[in-house]
Amino acid sequence: MDGMSSEASKVYLPAVRNTRSKLWKTVWKFRLLYLLLIPELIYFIIFKYVPMAGIIVAFKQYNLSLGFFDSPWIGFDNFKNFINGVYFRDILLNTILISLYKLVFGFSAPIVLALMLNEIRMVWFKRTVQTITYLPHFISWIIAYGLMVALFAPGSGLFNALLKQYGFDAIPFLTDPAWARTMIVASDIWKEAGWGAILYLAALVGIDPSLYEASRIDGANRWRQMWHITLPGIRNVIFILLILRMGSILDAGFDQIFIFVNSFNQEKADIIDTWVYRQGIERMQIGLATAVGVFKSVIGTVLVLLSNQLAKRFDGQIW
Fold this sequence. Notes:
Elements: H1 2-29, H2 31-49, H3 67-70, H4 77-83, H5 88-119, H6 123-134, H7 141-152, H8 158-165, H9 177-205, H10 209-217, H11 222-233, H12 235-247, H13 254-260, H14 266-269, H15 272-282, H16 286-315
Helix pairs in contact: 4-16, 5-9, 6-9, 12-16, 15-16
């Protein structure tokens, strides 16, 4: 046995030294790139990893005067209180439905827009449409909601004014619970579709033009080229963005929902983040709010891993 272990060590140790030597050679070769990476690593360590120590608050009855470590330990009581709460089912359902609607419609909208822009041959018209569609991204949700009020307010909104002019009843788009999710998803698509299309347009530039020329020689029309060349050409980008989106499936958009939600549509628009804001900031139940944040993070991590496995299955790549 001693002879076998010594022989194994003779083989193993040089291999380790060789691997370390190659690693340091690679680091030295790309040293400037690693230097550029250092500020980003410092940022993530200070603002992302160090605050993770605060997760301990989720398992305590947090008291501001006692601090993180001296507050009484209550185990999983905060999680149980959240799950057994009266509003758990409603806010979880609202969060999942709004996130799924945004994933289905909001995620596909930039792809469709990029494909449409890619088919436009007039450069000036293409640039004009692209500029108009991505400008709303730079508008805050406060201003966006102001525009929604100007257009869809029950009394003075432009759209409802037109309905009344032609003999129809006004529709309370911003206060009716039945319209709450539709308005939230539609406004999110309007605001972010043009900005999201930029990534796909950049990916489309990398497709070899000779593929289109060869397909035209073979008699392929525009639809065939789009299906067999364009979409496969941006497939990797779609999968990567889908994985990133899946990780935040329970982040339905606090800024937007906080502005859109009101006492009339709250039953259909209230989500986990807005509920956590009320409990953690307004009612100072910090332990409960932290527990909900941990709950969301665990689900997001699981969804990222599952979507990554799904991407591997369809794409055949190891990420």
